[in-house]
Structures are given as structure tokens and as C-alpha cells.
Amino acid sequence: MTVRKIGLGRSLSLPTPATSGLVLESDLTQSDLTRWSGGTYALIAETSPLANTINPVSGMINPQMIDGTGQLTFNNIPQTYRDLKIQFSYMSHNTVNGSQYRISWWYNNDTTNNRYYSRGGTVATGTPGHNSDNTDRHYFMYCRNHTQTSWGSIGDITIPNYSKTCPSNFRFAMGNSWNMNSLDYTIPWGFAYYNNAAAALPVTRLDFSWESDVKFKEISKITIYGIGKA
């Protein structure tokens, strides 16, 4: 193994030159170095208790999160990143009971039935514990009203290659959630958006709501990060 200088104060470990097909220093561009370094990770939007706040990095309008908010829209998502990460913090609904409800979410304002498929469960059971097939939106993580049970919920979803057109009519995402008052184990989730050419389109908008017409409690926080260069 040899270490060869490639400029910009960086080095790259490459096999010895005896092997054909190596990447030479002259073939590397600034774009290659930025992509490989993983240096792009930006907070591009987040919910706010104030109306019409703007994220300085992306120019996106931050959705307002107040007690009783029924739907949140992240619109005009910039296409300058490769992947999206959605982070859910202190998720809580405002219904006055101890019941748990799922968060729902969908792509590009598309709520056409039979296009969304959601799975959540644990390896230990061998079968998914939470299924939603052929619906008009994805379903994710169970949450309770934290004032009724003392617990909120946290989770995340990653959408790979959100800014690219998919090679086929489906788009995948995956995530994790945890609610100590619901299950002691972190729950993995998988999502498929499919059955139509619309599913292959780049993601420019994401919406979030609840099942059963419950509403968000203001403590809830949703943050979106852009990862990598498109």
C-alpha cells in the first residue's frame, strides 16, 4: 500500500501501481475530493414556533410548529445534496389521552392511494410488527402525549439519492424510532413509494401529519439535513 499526495493537504491510500485501472492524481477533481471527504452535512430546515422564519443555508421557509398544528410542509427542498436525513425530536401529540398514534408522511404532495408501503418491527420477532400496505402515505413511529405518560418519542428517516430521478418507479427510505413507554427496543422501519412514475421523481417537498386526525404538540421538533453533494 502506498500513500500518494493528491493536493489540498489531503492524501489517499492506493494499491501499488502494479494493478491496472487505478485512479491517478491527475484524474481527481475538487468535486471528487468534496464528495469523498463527506464534508457536506447541512441543516436545511427545521420546525419553529415562529411563523415565516427562513433557514440561512437553504433559503427554505421553516414550517411553524405550535400546539394544535395538524400538518407540516417542507417545500422547495434544494436539489444540491445527495441524501436527506429527517430527525424527529420530542415527538408528542396533543390529544388528552394516553394512547399512541403514528406520524404519517408523504412525498411531493402525492396522496394517491396504493403508492405507499411501510414496515416496522424487530429482528427478534421475525415478522414486522407494524404494517401499512398500499396506502396514500407512509406511517412511522408511535408517539404519545408526553404530558399524559411522561415520555415522548424520537426517530430518524434517511432518503438516499432524493435529488436524483430513480432508475425505476420506486423510491426507498429507512429509519429508526424509539418510545420507551411503547417498546423498550429501537424499532427499524422501511419505506417503499412505488406503483407509478411519480415515485421516481426527485423529492422537492415532504409533508408530515398524524393518523386519526390528532395534532402536534408544540414540544415536537422535525429537522431536515442535506448530506453529500448531488
Order of helices and strands: EEHEEEEEEEHEEEEE
Structure summary, number of beta strands: 14
The radius of gyration computed from the alpha-carbon positions, rounded to a whole number of angstroms, is 21 Å
- Tell me the major beta sheet: 8 strands, antiparallel
Counted up, domains total 2
Helix content: under 10%
- What gap, in angstroms, lies between the N and C termini? 31 Å
Number of helices: 2
What is the beta-strand fraction?
35-45%
Physical arrangement of strands within the biggest beta sheet: 3-14-5-10-11-12-7-8
Structure report:
The structure is a single chain. By secondary structure, this protein is mainly beta. The chain folds into 2 domains: 1-37, no CATH class; 40-229, no CATH class. It has 2 helices and 14 strands; from the N terminus they run E-E-H-E-E-E-E-E-E-E-H-E-E-E-E-E. The protein has helices spanning 30-37, 146-149, and strands at residues 2-5, 11-14, 41-46, 72-74, 81-91, 101-107, 116-121, 128-135, 138-143, 153-159, 170-179, 183-194, 206-210, 221-229. Strands 3-14-5-10-11-12-7-8 form an 8-stranded antiparallel sheet. The protein has a 4-stranded antiparallel sheet with strand order 4-13-6-9, with no helix packed on it. A two-stranded antiparallel sheet has the order 1-2. The longest helix has 8 residues, at 30-37.
Topology of this structure?
Elements: E1 2-5, E2 11-14, H1 30-37, E3 41-46, E4 72-74, E5 81-91, E6 101-107, E7 116-121, E8 128-135, E9 138-143, H2 146-149, E10 153-159, E11 170-179, E12 183-194, E13 206-210, E14 221-229
Antiparallel strand pairs: 1-2, 3-14, 4-13, 5-10, 5-14, 6-9, 6-13, 7-8, 7-12, 10-11, 11-12
